[in-house]
Amino acid sequence: MAEAILGLDFGTTNSLAAYVDASGVARSLTNIEDDRPHPSTVWYRGGEIVVGREARGHLEAGTDSISGAFVLSPKRLLRTEATVDVEGTRTDPRDIVKEVLQFLKNDAASTKRGASARNLTRAVMTIPVELDGEGRKRLREAARKAGIAVEQFVHEPLAALYGWLRSQQDYKERLAQLEGKRVLVFDWGGGTLDLTLCLIQGRQMVQLGNAGDNEVGGDYFDVALRNQLRSLHAAQHGIENIEQYETPESRARLLTQCELAKIQLSDLESFSIFVPYYLSTDQGQHLNVSLSRQDIEAWTGKLIDRGLAHIDKLLESHQLTPQEIELCLPTGGMVNLPAVRNGLGLFRRHAPGARRPADDAGRYLDRLRAGCPAAVAIERRAPRGDRHRPGL
Question: Is residue 389 part of a domain?
Fold first, then answer.
């Protein structure tokens, strides 16, 4: 089995490992069954631990026969040392994260992959801009517990830009066009919003500045939707203190349905949510509601405005105008929301010199960026401050 440093994107919602093949092409180790990234979902079912698509599938099934505890978005737990209650046991977040990383390691080495199987023992990992030193330490420790040595951390927006540039068919020509130009990467995922302002200089990406917000990620949108639906359901059935009739499992199922609605309403105008056995009472036992795209935009409008405002703040801090940005590169699942796309569209219309990335960049960049750090391998520090200059 081939030995290499793999790219590892441990994401809030989904995770993915990838490698660069002999021809220099990034190959993502997606789920064999559906060719999608692996959900970062952990299901503690008695003495058994289930991770990934199987865990997510049982949660989305929405029956009343599911037992055990589900942990969603374990990446967010690395922000503090606080333990998590899992089936009555206080559990170290590093041990939960370890389960996801161990799953990715085992999946990468699976014989089902044939020639593409890889030993995931060394990795370059992408991280949010706002993940501090302690958070990085906890992530490194979780990886070590999974038997993975972290060779290098790379900021997620920088990895996304590198992946997009290297994916261009005329990548050297594209790079030459961007020489001396500024690029803004807008990475809005399930856990965080990260922005990186770069200068392309001498075939290197120089980080001029970063900004991040870990309180506007997609998870916060899901919670906002859940809270609204919970209130509507309580009002419809005249239920007071509705949370006392929820179970941890039904609460998790509703949250998962809210995430699914958010995704579907990026393309559809309406979507129905059905959570059977939502409450442990005959009154309003099942939750069944239809949502519109307008509902989501109204309920999450403040989060959208807060996220888009970070663009202006970052540019103003460097005394730049949108017209001085050659390329705005959006990535992350949240950029598929029409309201977010519209906000970024306005930004680009104010930058007539900008080169727009491919329309589907937001959909495939999360996969590309998992593989591209392996090609970077090691970042080189620029002479001034904390700027980074990964070579292209």
Answer: no
My answer on whether 323 and 341 are in the same domain is yes
Q: What is the pLDDT of residues 318-349, one digit of tens each?
A: 999 888 888 888 888 898 899 998 887 744 43
Structural domain contains residue 388: no
Q: Is pTM beyond 0.70 here?
A: yes
Backbone angles phi, psi at 209, to 5 degrees: -170, 155
* 368 is a domain residue: yes
CB 218 within 8 A of CB 12: yes
**DSSP 8-state secondary structure symbol assigned to residue 120:** -
The answer to whether residues 37 and 15 touch, using CB atoms and an 8 Å cutoff, is: yes
Helix and strand counts by DSSP (H, E) for the chain: 11, 19
Please name the amino acid found at residue 146.
A
Q: Quote helix, strand, coil % in the chain, to nearest 5.
A: 45, 25, 30
Give per-residue pLDDT as tens, 8-57: 999 999 999 988 877 777 788 999 988 899 999 999 988 899 999 999 98
**Residues 95 and 80 occupy one common structural domain:** yes
Amino acid occupying residue 325 = I
